[in-house]
Specification:
This protein is α/β, with parallel strands linked by helices. The protein folds into two domains: 215 residues, Spore Coat Polysaccharide Biosynthesis Protein SpsA, Chain A (Alpha-Beta Complex); 108 residues. Helix content is 46%, strand content 18%. Strands 1, 2, 3, 4, 5, 6, 7, 8 and 9 form a nine-stranded mixed β-sheet that branches.
Length: 328
């Protein structure tokens, strides 16, 4: 059985479509755990309505504690041999769970994953027909997956997303989310990937990420964005000292994220808080990066972005200019 865990918080206009898409899965042996994280809109009532109509649905109502605590509540009660996470404002392809289950079993992987398609709120989600006989599969060992988690992948596998994956329960039994308000999935997946032997990616857009104004990634600068930095700093704590390649890759990505958040905070009330956090993290990590075997030019670039934020702004403007020229 697959346990599908869905954190719910004030997503009343999206949750019907989300729940329906899961219950309409071609894989029928599932339990749907809806964790209402103290919603103040109709989300909780909608969840209860589905539970009354379908015995596979279980609803947990709790005081608001954030998405991490909601997922932890779901993990605590899940009974399936396999675990999948879906966000309450997204939808899945009816074949997603069955395809990921078959791929996982056929490859004897620790987890399987698919591509994600971004869809603007209000647009019709084109599920399309999936020919399971022609799906491209790729087996990914631990080292390659971790590199992908740091953004170093080219196959569209969305490595650092939680919601496009199906996990074997035994792999994640003791793993819990740490309470970060943003990018909490990155640090959790990182701990899981360090324990795995292999994963399998299937090149099919089976998860539909609904883009709307209240999506976390579309919010203006706020304190949650600092958790993006903290997430990769926590990842550094997990990587064994002897695993030089992974530490180098993670270090580079950490400093890139520091530059991005620093730029995003510019001229906001959070700018000084971000500067303080960046300095705190850099005091622990910069020495290792300077001593590392990372390519000298790459190392110089990310350290320049950290010490001279204006260079990052110039770099991004240059990238935008080049992109516009190529589009002409």
């Amino acid at each position: 059985m697959i346990s599908v865990i869905v954190p719910i918080y004030n997503v009343g206009r999206f949750v019907d479509a989300c729940i329906s898409s899961i219950l309409n899965s071609t894989f029928r042996d599932l339990e749907l755990i809806l964790v209402d994280d103290g919603s103040t809109d109709a989300s909780g009532d909608i969840c209860d309505r589905y539970a009354a109509d379908d015995s596979r649905v279980r609803v947990i109502h709790k005081t608001n504690g954030g998405v991490s605590s909601a997922r932890n509540e779901g993990l605590q009660v899940a009974t399936g041999e396999f675990i999948c996470f879906v966000d309450g404002d997204d939808v899945i392809h009816p074949g997603m769970l069955e395809i990921l289950f078959n791929v996982l079993q056929d490859s004897d992987s620790d987890f399987s994953m698919c591509s994600i398609k971004r869809v603007n709120a209000g647009e019709t989600v084109d599920m399309g027909n999936i020919d399971t006989n022609t799906l491209t599969r790729k087996v990914i060992p631990t080292e390659d997956f971790c590199r992908g988690l740091y953004g170093n992948n080219k196959d569209g596998g969305f490595y650092n997303y939680l919601v496009n994956k199906l996990f074997r329960r035994e792999l994640i039994t003791n793993e819990r989310f740490t309470g970060l308000r943003m990018c909490e999935d990155i640090e959790w997946i990182h701990r899981v990937c360090l324990k795995m032997k292999k994963a399998t990616f299937v090149a099919a857009e089976l998860y539909f990420y609904i883009q709307h104004d209240s999506s976390a990634t579309h919010e203006p600068m706020n304190p949650k964005f600092m958790d993006w930095i903290r997430a990769y700093d926590l990842c550094m704590n997990d990587i064994p000292e002897g695993n030089v390649e992974l530490r180098n890759n993670c270090l580079l990505h950490l400093f890139k994220v520091m530059a991005i958040v620093r730029n995003k905070s510019r001229h906001t009330q959070y700018e000084q808080d971000v500067i303080a956090l960046n300095d705190e993290v850099a005091s622990k990590r910069e020495g290792e990066l300077r001593r590392s075997s990372v390519n000298g030019l790459t190392k110089w670039r990310v350290l320049t972005f950290y010490h001279f934020p204006w260079t990052y702004r110039l770099f991004m403007k240059a990238c935008d200019l080049v992109a516009k020229c190529l589009q002409r």
